[in-house]
Amino acid sequence: MNILKDEPYGTTKGFLLSSAAWMVAGSLAGFIGAVEMVAPELLGNIPWIAFGRIRQIHTNLVMFGFVGSALVGAAHYLVPTLLRTPLHSERIGKASLWSWNLAITAGVVTLSLGYTQNREYAELIWPIDIGVLIVLALVFYNFLQTLRRRKENLLYVSIWYIVGSFVFTFFTYFFGNAVWNPETGSIIGIPDAVLAWFYGHNIIAFFFTTLAVAVAYYIIPIVARTPLYSHTLSLIGFWTILIMYSHIGTHHIIQAPVQTWLKVIAVTGSIGMLIPVLTVLVNLWLTMRGRLGNIHADVAGKFVFAGSVWYLLTCLQGPLQSLPSVQRLTHFTNWVVGHAHMGILGFAGMTALGGVYFILPRVTGRSLYSARLADIQYWLILIGMTGFFVVLTTAGLIQGNGWLNGEVVYRILPEIHLYMVLRASLGILIAGGAIIGLYNIFMSLYGPKGETS
């Protein structure tokens, strides 16, 4: 079998199937970690699934394996479609696909063995970092060459977001992982903390957010059966997100001895993020105005619409928790964990799944294997994510209030134990939805012709 076979949309299909498989692995890793939060010794203290390792495996699998693969796969469909030009090279696309999956697999193995850079969302060791950078460069080159040969002169906003995403992600990943220092992947002292959160925040901004917005801008007008409300608003949102998002990572370390001017820039920039976020959402929601029936009649539309709601909630909570007065209560608590789940699973993850279910019939030439299974997955993930938000936010407020009143950590743990049990229980819904999704996507690609109900 030729893994670099030149076939139409082969790269897209590979990334979408990879996303489904990594979602199962990532959600199961998260479930193991959640169980260990409830009963730390239940699984026998096996080193390669100890919480400190399984948590890093979980975040990397969900972020880059599940959500990242789906969004990159969607980009490989959107770029040639919107430019009315075949992808420059499916072979390069396949090479990036296999390299991406190899890097993620290597990441799982090395993290389970304890090899890590111990930086938030940048735990992968130097050789894997180089692999990721090569993939990003390959994808950008493939898209750039497709762009140069395009038959469509008008660059729809999704193209802006996709191309911008890979440019900014490459440099964010390079600098954020301190690639020039392979032994540690870091620099020294407080500047390293600033650099780490420059990366931690910007990888969310310029990889997940920009690609998810590109997917939403493509799907919503088609499902709503109406043109995008405003192309001008879409470009305002694009440029303001580049201006506002890049310098606000320091709001994660307001309590640290970072320069005051940098804290002020981070907090004011965080508040300013409401401009690009609301610009995107107003544009999308005005496009949907009076057409929610169309949106919810389409399983892909439902996923993307739910993602847009989580985007609003995430980006209201984000500026709020950047305020020092709020951060005194929420920092280092489960509130922040809930916020991270909202951004990755709620916004980017739901949008990515909408992209998967929208694109699959168009690249296979046949209907989805089961719209019913996709709908079940939608409700399992939506209920699970809503539960995560309520449970983790509540647990975080209990922790923060206790610590502010002088309670020590071990006195607070019994008070949040029930919430950790609920968190693990909700993880079953997410893992179940992931397994259903993998089956549905695999059968849509390789099984018999599906149903449409």
Features:
single chain, globular, mainly alpha, 453 residues, 15 helices
Please give a structural write-up.
With 453 residues, this protein is mostly helical. The protein has 15 helices and no strands. The longest helix is centred in the C-terminal third of the chain and has 38 residues. The radius of gyration is 21 Å and the shape is globular. The protein starts with 9 loop residues before the first helix and ends in a 7-residue tail after the last helix.
Layout: helices, strands, pairs:
Layout: H1 10-38, H2 51-83, H3 90-112, H4 126-148, H5 157-176, H6 189-224, H7 231-245, H8 260-272, H9 274-288, H10 292-297, H11 299-322, H12 324-330, H13 334-364, H14 371-404, H15 409-446
Helix pairs in contact: 1-2, 1-3, 1-15, 2-3, 2-6, 2-13, 3-4, 4-5, 5-6, 6-7, 6-9, 6-11, 6-13, 7-9, 8-11, 9-11, 11-13, 11-14, 13-14, 14-15
